[in-house]
Specification:
143 residues; alpha+beta; 5-stranded mixed barrel; 4 helices; 48% helix
Length: 143
C-alpha cells in the first residue's frame, strides 16, 4: 500500500504545527500553511517539482507579508501609564501653600500628597489648581 503525496504533505503540515504550539513561533504556522498548499497541488495531480515550488512560494510569501504586519501591529500597542507615571500631567488642588520648600500639600487623584513647586520663585495658595510635572519620591513637583 503506497501513501499518496498529498497525505505526506498533510503529515508534514501537522508536523510543522506541533513546534508552532510548543514554541509559539508563528513561522512554523506559515510553513505548515505552505505544506497544506503543497498537499492541494499534489491532490490536483501536480508533480513533485510543482508541489515543492508551491510549498516554498507560499511559505516565503507568508513570512514576507505576515511577519512585518505582525511586527508593525505589535509596535502600535499604546503604552499604558501606571503608578507614578499615571500621575504626571494630572491636575491637583492645593490644600496648603505650595512653594519650593516641599512643605505644601495637594489633593491628587483623591489622595493627599506633599508638594513643592517646580519653579523656586513660584508659590500656590490653597484652592488653586496646579499641574503635576513630576513625582520626586513621595513629593509631587507642581507648576
Amino acid at each position: 500500500m503506497e501513501i499518496e503525496a498529498w497525505v505526506w504533505w498533510l503529515i508534514a503540515a501537522v508536523g510543522l504545527g506541533i513546534p508552532l504550539v510548543l514554541t509559539a513561533m508563528p513561522e512554523f504556522g506559515m510553513f505548515s500553511a505552505g505544506a497544506v498548499a503543497g498537499a492541494v497541488v499534489a491532490a490536483l495531480g501536480g508533480g513533485i517539482v510543482a508541489q515543492v515550488l508551491v510549498f516554498v512560494l507560499v511559505s516565503v510569501a507568508l513570512i514576507a507579508v505576515v511577519r512585518p504586519l505582525a511586527a508593525r501591529q505589535g509596535s502600535r500597542t499604546p503604552r499604558l501609564a501606571t503608578g507614578i507615571d499615571a500621575l504626571k500631567g494630572r491636575q491637583a488642588v492645593v490644600l496648603e501653600r505650595v512653594d519650593s520648600s516641599g512643605r505644601g500639600r495637594i489633593k491628587l487623584a483623591g489622595e493627599i500628597w506633599s508638594a513643592r513647586s517646580l519653579d523656586a520663585e513660584q508659590s500656590f495658595e490653597p484652592g488653586e489648581k496646579v499641574d503635576v510635572a513630576d513625582i520626586d519620591g513621595a513629593t509631587a513637583v507642581v507648576m
